[in-house]
Amino acid sequence: MTDTIIGIGKAADPNRRDEVKGSEEKKLKQVCADFEAIFVYQLMQSMRKTVPKGGLLPLSAGRSTWEMLMDQHVAEAISKKGDGFGLQKMLYNDLKKKLKYFETSPINSTKE
Length: 112
Known about the structure:
This protein is mainly α and 112 residues long. It has one domain. Helix content is 62%, strand content 4%. Strands 1-2 form a two-stranded antiparallel sheet. It starts with a strand and ends with a strand.
């Protein structure tokens, strides 16, 4: 009997299944954190557009680049700190259920 795990592309040793499953969950967690960072970055960019231009410091050519880099850094820091805004945790829990269903569905296992 050989179980096929989609994503690997070939038959996997049943003893390696837990190792592969752990690495898949780790990748999923990282992807959810990255998605949250992108979402927070877009949120910050939208919020920045609502702030009137001007102020104490004059506008310079490098200011928009600095603001972009700062927003990216803050967004990544938020997503790495604990559960971030909670979006990555919700995504991870939902997608983990779908991953488990996908791994255990009868279509994905073949018997010889």
